[in-house]
Amino acid sequence: MHIDWAALGTVFGVSLIVTVGLVGLFTVGIVGLSKQQSAAAGKGNVAVARTTAYLCFALCAAAVAYGINLIVGK
């Protein structure tokens, strides 16, 4: 049995970067929703906080859908 260590390292690196990026994007969405409440109290713009949060969640959903599409195939 032959293991291609370079390919294994590439898969590990890409999956690590994508995972950290996706979790970071989701975190920005959560922070945007929490800022929405403080913006409603008069300290900022509610529409910007809500739009940023929804955009981050939509990008997360698109990344998950793309990953499922890669796994399932056509």
TrEMBL record:
Keywords: Membrane, Transmembrane, Transmembrane helix
Domain of life: Bacteria
Transmembrane portions of the chain: 6-31, 52-72
Protein name in the entry: Secreted protein
Organism: Streptomyces noboritoensis
